[in-house]
Amino acid sequence: MNSLFSGKYKGKKVIVTGDTGFKGSWLTLWLKTMGAVVYGISLKPESESSHINLLKINYESICLDIREKDELSSLIADIAPDLIFHLAAQPLVRLSYEDPYNTFATNIMGTINVLDAARTVGNLKGVIIVTSDKCYDNKEWFWGYRENEPMGGKDPYSASKGCAELVTAAYRSSYFPILEFGKSHHTLISSVRAGNVIGGGDWAKDRIVPDMIKAAVEDRPLLIRYPNASRPWQHVLEPLSGYLCIGQKLLESEVKFADSWNFGPNLDSNVKVIDLVLLARTYWKAVRYDIDTNIHRGEANFLMLDSSKAINMLGWHSVWDFEQTVMHTIEWYKEYFVAGRLVSEIQLMKYVDEARKKMIKWAIS
């Protein structure tokens, strides 16, 4: 595993904000298997069964709210990392309707605090700000959004992610300009956007897979709010491989990669919610569903990313198609609840092995 991404992560000091979250826990696992020295900064996990607790990874995790500017800046300066992955966020659309203030405070001011702290770390090679496909001004057209499309957001969560992208671009232009790299500063800033990420170890409320699993375990049907809404489903390891590709390039001081990047699934992975549930049921018969006919606050019906830039410039590609994504996701939960086994490391190794067989650049370089 140390040879992945040209071996650039071995021995590097890497901060992961949001390490106790769903994506952050998988990223922390992957970084540790490659020999990185990982520091996590986040709130405590909400339960003992959170993925990061189950993994029992040996790394330093610091409990700190990213809205605490001075404490965060001091901590980052003390660590003096080579690279920062900023994932800490309020990640739920429905919760953003209920608590817009803290959604904006966390997702915008938290990002500002991380970027401001980065200005004081002389050896820092790069910062990767993780936002969302929902950062775009979604017109629900039937082609993918490219990185140069306008930012937007009709709900607090989406708007906060669009704002985080604008903040990132402003900091890059004002404090980390590419033309001044190697002169007035030595840090490259990128932002990354993914689709609807699923996989084992996600326990968040109001997400289709965790809700579906909880219903199956409790022997009751899942209530589906938007059965015909299409989403660009991808396994959690897919965008993480893209984030790590960008991290490698920043560690190598490749200035052209200090930009925004989409890491979305293939077109055939843009599938209706009801079809996701039906496929999941083929792998675990305990999955049942009913259609929720109540009126809920709006969510997008269609949203897709164009990942051509990442494909052409990074050689990045998806490894698992939609069916494999659902199969591995349901396998994780079924193994956990039925067999009492944690298969995260096994699935990571399987993913890497299949990437190698497909000759994907990051896996064989």
What would a concise description of this structure say?
By secondary structure, the protein is an alpha/beta fold.
* Assembly form of the protein: single chain
Strand order of the largest sheet: 3-2-1-4-5-6-10
Give the helix proportion (percent range): 40-55%
CATH class, named Alpha Beta
Radius of gyration: 19 Å
Query: What is the tally of beta strands?
Result: 12
Uncertain stretches of 5 or more adjacent residues = none
Distance, first to last CA: 12 Å
Please give the count of helices.
13
CATH fold topology: Rossmann fold
The named CATH superfamily: NAD(P)-binding Rossmann-like Domain
Question: Helices, strands, pairings?
Answer:
Blueprint: E1 13-17, H1 22-33, E2 37-42, H2 51-55, E3 60-63, H3 69-79, E4 83-86, H4 93-98, H5 100-118, E5 126-130, H6 156-175, E6 188-194, E7 196-198, H7 208-217, E8 222-224, E9 230-235, H8 237-251, E10 260-263, E11 270-272, H9 273-283, E12 289-291, H10 308-314, H11 322-339, H12 344-357, H13 361-364
Helix pairs in contact: 3-5, 5-6, 9-11
